[in-house]
Amino acid sequence: MLVVALLAATAAAFALTEVLKLQKSPITGTNVAPVLSPVCGCATAEAAIHFKLRERDVLDLSVIDGGGDVVANVVRGEAVPAGRVSLAWDGRDDAGNVLPEGEYRPRVHLREANFTIEMPNEMRIDVTPPVVESFEIVPRVFSPDGDGRADAVRATYRVSEDAAGLLFVNGQRRVRTKFARPQGRLDWYGRVDGRALPAGVYGLTVSARDPAGNVAERTQPTPVVIRYVALGRTRIEVPAGSSFAVRVSSDAAEVRWRLGRRSGTSEPGTLRVRAPRQKGRFTLVVTANGHAARAAVFVRGQP
User: Fold this and answer.
1) Domains and CATH numbers, the chain
2) Residue 154 burial by CB count (10 A; 0-12/13-18/19+): exposed, middle or buried?
3) Which of 187, 196, 193 shows the shortest CA–CA distance to 291?
4) Cα(165)–Cα(137) distance, rounded to whole angstroms?
5) Distance from C-alpha of 254 to C-alpha of 147, rounded to nearest angstrom
6) Complete DSSP assignment for 204-261
7) Quick one: pLDDT at residue 16?
8) Residue 236 in contact with residue 245, Cβ under 8 Å?
9) What's the N-to-C CA distance of the chain in angstroms?
């Protein structure tokens, strides 16, 4: 009889276990943000916690540490209808203190269903910003005129952890890498809203943002020059009818020049031009890919 009783009890326990296995969990569709930085002041300062309730219930949501201890209570005794539930945790305890860096998990308790689940999804607190360990910006002079010659500046960098690279121009963020990696490059084409910036000197700085939202301290500004065409001097004095030379700097394959009634083309470098035969003030205009540089030419009489 004892053996029969044991067999019967075992069969009953097995049957109960199989029934429990077939019961659907009252919580489905969990989705938890994997990382947050409570101090970043950004979108990842909180960890989003999403799930679905099959039926309405009264909800408690707490956060536990790696040892299973409750470190924060997000929601207590809140009546929630069936459907999608969206909550967020700010990485702080009930007193408002930022918790230590580490892994945490949400724990959900449904009072009416008398059901508790510790979500397997981990939320990692990270408040340490990355560090830009090295970087290089080349070239220091470029011309974003679209001719395929020195049209962009490239910043290569290495950071202390996986992070998205950031490039700032005169304090404004202009480029961001898509993926968080320990090294990468940032290409800047000297344009804002599709339009090339005017010639001048611009300060470029490199930074990085980790997945938690912590941002690295920016590097010191590196001066970069946008130059389309430039002349070695902007005031020239020359006797009438004499030739003179002026340095032309440009990344274009060819430049055009005009002085009085005369004009021509030349490669960048030393431009040699003959002055008009009459005295007066003239303007030397040199153009490259739609951009121009000018110099005042003062022609005096022959001695």
Assistant:
1) 30-125 (2.60.40.4070), 132-226 (2.60.40.10), 229-300 (2.60.40.10)
2) middle
3) 196
4) 13
5) 11
6) EEEEEE-TTS-BPPPPPPEEEEE-SEEES-SEEEEETT-EEEEEEEESSS-EEEEETT
7) 39
8) no
9) 138
Q: Could you tell me the pTM of the whole model?
A: 0.82
Q: What is the dihedral of CA 184, 151, 216, 71, to 10 degrees?
A: -70
- Given a cut of 50, whether residue 262 has pLDDT beyond it is yes
b/e burial code for range 109-124 (CB count within 10 A of at least 16 → b): bbeebeeeeebebebb
Dist. CA 187–CA 275, nearest whole Å: 43
Which of 15-29, 54-68, 138-152, 212-226 has the lowest average pLDDT? Answer: 15-29
So what's the pLDDT on residue 4? 45
pLDDT in tens, 24-57: 889 999 999 999 999 999 999 999 999 999 999 9
pLDDT over threshold 70, residue 112: yes
Sheet holding 229-231, edge to edge: 229-231, 243-250, 269-274
Q: How far apart are CA 208 and CA 177, in angstroms?
A: 9
Residue 24: per-residue pLDDT: 81
Nearest CA among 257, 259, 258, 297 for reference residue 281: 297
Residue 2 pLDDT > 80: no
Torsion of CA 225, 226, 228, 233, to 10 degrees: -40
Cis amide leading into 139 (omega within 30): yes
Tokens of 250: 């440009």
